Amino acid sequence: MNRGTVLVAFALLGMDGAAFAADSAPGKALFERHCAVCHAAGPGHAGTMRLTEARGADKAVLEDRTDLDSAYIRVVVRQGLVEMPPWRRTEIDDAALQQIAAYLTRSRN
Amino acid sequence: MKQILPPGVSVGAFAEVLNDFRKIVGNDYVLTGDDLLSYADPYSIIADDETHAASAAVAPASTEQVQEIVRAANKHGVPLWPVSCGKNFGYGGASPRMAGTVVLDLKRMNRILEVSEADGYALVEPGVNYFDLYEHIQARGYKLWLDVPDPGWGSVVGNALDHGVGYTPYGDHFAMQCGMEVVLPNGELVRTGMGAMPGNTTWQLFKYGFGPYLDGMFSQSNFGIVTKMGIWLMPEPPGYRPYMISFQREEDLEQVVDILRPLKVGSVIQNAATIRSLLLVAAMNATRSQYTNKPGPLPDSTLRRIMADQDIGMWNIYGALYGPPPVMDTLWTVIRDSFAKVPGAKFYFVEDRKKPNDLLIGRADEMRGIPRMNEFSFINWTGGGGHIGFSPVSPIRGAEAMKQYTMVRDRLHEYGFDYLSIFAIGWRDLHHVVELLFDRRDPTIKRQAEEVFRVLVREAAAAGYGEYRTHLSFMDDIAATYGWNDNALLKLHQTIKDALDPKGILAPGKSGIWPARYRRSHP
Fold it and tell me: Over 70: is that where the pLDDT of A22 sits?
């Protein structure tokens, strides 16, 4: 289920934010497994440290950002971005990457 | 993405082999086109993107599939480059030595086949990384410790095979390897050591079996594909106390190393301790731009400011004590009293360190085998991501350490690069691992980095120092420095290569070993 479908489902069923949060749970778990070692908040995370310098503190923690979109996330993960290496499909398959992207672009309402 | 073919293989033959691979692993795991972007070495020092470009990747899920792929590759004369987790960054990542080689991606082979708490070992496939094995052991409550390198995302098998090091008493990873299963270049399957005996129960307990000990020839080589490997794990000790000792002057390195040698050789220092340079430690918490926006070597006044800001030394030992508390107390007394002879030496335990990302706090995990990624922060020092390891080996002698340090530092400064390094203490040797940082987006800086790297290799060899490991781009250069008696060792490697792999399909160029078909001219 992609994000657009989920949003339509909310509108039709009048679901609340808690149900949506549940849908992004697999992506959160995958983020924690593959990404958080470098991108979690706080010191000791190479990606967060780099983004603080390159983009500013308000853009440093990926889970807090609201400006990311799925296509951008997929390109960065598959091709890498400057300091970040690329991730192969044998490490994070397309379905898992889709879930991670869904989590990072989840609605915050 | 531009299609590259293996040398000497036609478009038709290549299409046929990819079809064969699809029949073996399924369509999803034969990767071509834009999927190959994630196999490129992101941190390559080479300005041109095609030098190490793969023609395709194939990802088997089992040993049987590896055998079938190898047989298909032989049939079509298509070269394969095995990678385990593909995280050997600074040395080439998941990309092949020779352009057009097909990457044999073993990441899907990620089974932990056995962990024995009583006997202290694990038997794993090459796709298992340190996080996987750590979580497996924790979930079962086994009182066993891993030995991990700085970044935990790498392969347990791959790191040992590339002679990687960690930081507990089990820090020499290949020394802790016991028993392998190997697919030979003709597709045949062998088990080494006791694994060759049907029904034997000591495959992961006794290395040597009967007859020649062959496991070493499958490390840093292209003689076989390791599909299972045993690794010894350390029983959790009754006590653990990590420490840091800082030294204030550059020239202290000589005295520090001379004090360290008898302590390490005599096992008073129990683990694979390290001496880390100022900027490598500083890079955990800071970046270069916080101190200067000028290129060139940092002046002494800035180095002193960094030392004061972070309460670190020009050199910093990170070590740990293991054992019952009275044993640790006694060992610490000897270690402390020995290094107290160095003027200005300062001693710390974890509770003495205050910064949240202080390196001793991170190393307190790593020296007890908890995998982390915090030390990957060092690539942020200059930004731009590019990094490559220059890793010459010397005796544990103060004068030799100083000679290497000044030689490398001066050359790096001449070419406009900072000096960041680790001296890792082996059983009888120092691995001087220098991290050369550069902006991967800047072709001019990459050319300078490549040039200074080649100068360093030549100068180190002229002084009698050889690298223990290197990036794809320099494998021929390093192999050439091991040229005693008219390249007798390289010739022996070639003889073995031709006997085991007559069609030259396995990892052409690995460690400078080229099969006959590419030996005279290779890309």
Answer: no
Q: Tell which wins on pLDDT, A22 or B309.
A: B309
Residue A13 has pLDDT above 70, yes or no: no
Give Cα separations from B46 to B52, B100, B438 (angstroms).
9, 16, 11
Active site residue B468: yes
Comparing CB atoms, the residue among A53, A82, A91 nearest residue B287 is A53
- Could you say which of B39, B43, B91, B348 is catalytic? B91
Check if the beta carbon of residue B391 is closer than 8 Å to that of residue B250. Answer: no
Amino acid identity for residue B361 in this structure = I
Place of tokens 């060139």: B296
Can you tell me the distance from the alpha carbon of B367 to that of B371, in angstroms, rounded to the nearest whole number?
A: 9
Closest residue by Cα to residue B133 from B234, B20, B280, B250:
B234
> Residue B395 carries which DSSP code?
E
B400 touches chain A (CB under 8 A): no
Has residue A10 got a pLDDT over 60?
no
Contacts of A46 in chain B (CB under 8 A): 373-374, 376-377, 379-380
* Intervals of CATH 3.30.43.10 along chain B: 1-108+482-523
Query: Which token pair is B424?
Result: 């890792």
pLDDT at B523: 67
Residue B33 sits at the chain A interface (C-beta within 8 Å): no
Q: What is the CATH number of domain B1-108+482-523?
A: 3.30.43.10
Kindly write down the DSSP assignment for every residue of A82-98, as one continuous string.
Answer: TTBPP--TTTS-HHHHH
| Cα–Cα dist A38/A83, whole Å | 11
Pairwise CB contact (< 8 Å): B38 & A46 = no
Q: What is the pTM of this model?
A: 0.94
Q: What is the pLDDT of residues A52-96, one digit of tens each?
A: 999 999 999 999 999 999 999 999 999 999 999 999 999 999 999
Q: Which residues of B touch A43 (CB under 8 A)?
A: 285, 355-357
Looking at residue B355, its pLDDT comes to 85
Q: Evaluate whether B188 touches B242 at the Cβ level (below 8 Å).
A: no
For A89, list phi and psi in degrees, rounded to 5: -65, -25
| B85: nearest CA partner in chain A | A91
Level-2 CATH architecture, domain B112-235? 2-Layer Sandwich (3.30)
Contact B455, B411 (CB under 8 A): yes
Q: Which one is catalytic: B142, B243, B348, B468?
A: B468
| Least CB–CB distance from A90: residue in B107, B372, B374 | B107
Domain limits, CATH 3.40.462.10, in chain B: 240-474
Largest CA distance in chain B: 71
Q: Is B197 on the interface with A (CB under 8 A)?
A: no
Q: Active-site residue B348, yes or no?
A: no
Report CB contact under 8 Å: B43, A79: no
Architecture of domain B240-474: 3-Layer(aba) Sandwich (3.40)
When scoring B377, B388, B437, B439 by the number of chain A Cβ atoms within 10 A, the one with the most, hence best to mutate, is: B377
Which of A37, A87, A88, A94 is most worth mutating to test chain B (most B CB atoms within 10 A of its CB)? A88
Average pLDDT of adjacent 10-residue blocks, chain B of 523 residues: 89 97 98 96 87 97 98 97 96 96 98 98 98 98 97 97 96 97 98 97 97 97 98 98 98 98 96 96 94 94 97 98 98 98 98 90 96 93 94 96 97 97 94 95 95 96 96 96 97 98 98 96 75
